[in-house]
């Protein structure tokens, strides 16, 4: 679909919401092409806020948010920046707003969730140079979560029944042999940062403020009491179990407008179409099967082609005035053998940048 159709859906959502300014922020949740919330979004986001019509006084901004999370510092910068341009800040959740996206929602005056909408725990995972390697792919590392570490210690103490100090030390040393001590330290530091940001973001709210005890309880539940990083939290659980009293289920008209816009993004960002680089390349340039000869042809004589793929879209920020999309240009070389099998190709990235579109406003 075109930007014109997305703008029409944004305009309708703004009208249904009583004249808010809707700004969409989506990171790719497309299988095989997932992207994270990243600090490089702040500058394009600032341009959207700067170009909003009217004055700051009385302005209400709705952040239409779809993401599986990302860098922990993005929510703080994003929320504080948005609040410079409005008197009321709300978050609309069409589908998934996990991890760092949930942290962003904590800074809103209200969170309006579609029936399909989900928040999630804010316990972070770290993935750095000291992380353990993936046994199935030694070129990749495994993420480490503080809950994994805490659950290991709890297993040893509570389930196995080991409580003697020397035995606990041995259990920890066994863990440290698999996970570098600096990675364990990074997990602790990142978790402390997540808890701090959760508290600070909840204090940013300008209406129905929460007492310190309630804030601490919410942070505890989101960072350490849900036990599974992918646990989906609907609007009822968010209010009644987690304690986020400012979360509400969208009314029927708002839910319909939210979902209409989300379905357009699903199509345009191919969120339901798993990304397979070889399949993409073959679709653009299928190769013929070479003749089968006595004595296989050497690999360099097999039919091959270097294919430039359509731009890959990793993130999008959109409002009535403009669209900013983080795109990557890449190419992949494929070859086909005498049995008709395609050899795997790896994408070679040529450029990555934010691209702006102001048409269709």
Write a concise synopsis of the structure shown.
With 361 residues, the protein is of the alpha/beta class. It contains eleven helices and 16 strands.
Q: Your description of this structure?
A:
The protein has 361 residues and is of the alpha/beta class. The protein has three domains: 3-125 and 198-268, 2-enoyl-CoA Hydratase, Chain A, domain 1 (Alpha-Beta Complex); 126-183, no CATH class; 277-312 and 325-353, no CATH class. Helices cover 38% and strands 22% of the residues. The chain has helices at residues 3-16, 42-50, 74-83, 100-106, 146-159, 165-178, 181-203, 212-224, 235-242, 252-268, 277-284; strands at residues 21-27, 60-66, 88-93, 96-97, 110-113, 118-119, 125-126, 133-134, 137-141, 144-145, 247-249, 304-308, 312-318, 323-336, 342-343, 348-357. The strands form four sheets. Strands 1, 2, 3, 5, 11, 12, 13, 14, 15 and 16 form a ten-stranded mixed beta sheet that branches.
What are the salient characteristics of this protein?
16 strands, alpha/beta, 361 residues, 2-enoyl-CoA Hydratase, Chain A, domain 1, two-stranded parallel sheet, 3 domains, ten-stranded mixed sheet, flat, 11 helices
**How many distinct domains?**
3
| Amino- and carboxy-terminal Cα gap | 15 Å
Total DSSP helices:
11
Q: Given the C-alpha coordinates, what overall shape results?
A: flat
**How much β-strand is present in the residues?**
15-25%
* Classification by helices and strands: alpha/beta
Radius of gyration from CA coordinates: 24 Å
Number of strands: 16
Low-confidence stretches: none
Second rung of CATH, namely the architecture of the largest domain: Alpha-Beta Complex
Q: Helicity level, as a percent range?
A: 25-40%
CATH third-tier fold name of the largest domain: 2-enoyl-CoA Hydratase, Chain A, domain 1
Profile the largest sheet: 10 strands, mixed
CATH superfamily of the largest domain: 2-enoyl-CoA Hydratase, Chain A, domain 1
């Amino acid at each position: 679909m075109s930007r014109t159709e997305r703008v029409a859906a944004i305009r309708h959502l703004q009208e249904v919401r009583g004249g808010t300014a809707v700004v969409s922020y989506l990171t790719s949740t497309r299988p095989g092409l997932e992207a994270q919330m990243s600090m490089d979004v702040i500058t394009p986001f600032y341009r959207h806020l700067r170009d909003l019509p009217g004055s700051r006084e009385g302005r209400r901004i709705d952040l239409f948010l779809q993401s599986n999370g990302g860098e922990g510092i993005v929510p703080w910068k994003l929320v504080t920046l948005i609040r410079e341009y409005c008197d009321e800040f709300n978050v609309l959740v069409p589908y998934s707003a996990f991890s760092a996206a949930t942290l962003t929602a904590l800074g809103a005056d209200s969170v309006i969730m579609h029936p399909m909408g989900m928040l999630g725990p804010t316990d972070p995972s770290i993935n750095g140079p000291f992380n353990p390697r993936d046994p199935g792919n030694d070129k990749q590392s495994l993420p480490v979560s503080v809950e994994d570490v805490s659950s290991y210690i709890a297993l040893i103490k509570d389930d196995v029944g080991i409580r003697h100090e020397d035995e606990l030390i041995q259990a920890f040393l066994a863990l440290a042999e698999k996970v570098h001590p600096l990675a364990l330290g990074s997990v602790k530091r990142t978790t402390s940062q997540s808890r701090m940001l959760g508290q600070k973001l909840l204090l940013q709210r300008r209406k129905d403020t929460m007492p310190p005890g309630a804030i601490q309880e919410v942070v505890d539940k989101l960072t350490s009491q849900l036990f599974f990083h992918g646990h989906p939290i609907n609007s009822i659980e968010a209010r009644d179990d987690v304690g986020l009293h400012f979360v509400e289920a969208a009314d029927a008209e708002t839910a319909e407008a939210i979902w209409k816009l989300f379905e357009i993004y699903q199509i345009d960002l191919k969120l339901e179409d798993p990304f397979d680089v070889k399949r993409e390349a073959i679709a653009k340039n299928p190769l013929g099967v070479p003749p089968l000869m006595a004595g296989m042809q050497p690999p360099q004589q097999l039919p091959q082609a270097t294919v430039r793929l359509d731009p890959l879209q990793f993130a999008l920020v959109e409002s009535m005035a403009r669209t900013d999309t983080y795109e990557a240009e890449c190419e992949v070389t494929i070859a086909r053998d005498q049995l008709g099998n395609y050899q795997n190709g790896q994408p070679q990235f040529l450029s990555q940048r934010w691209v702006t579109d102001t048409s269709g406003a």
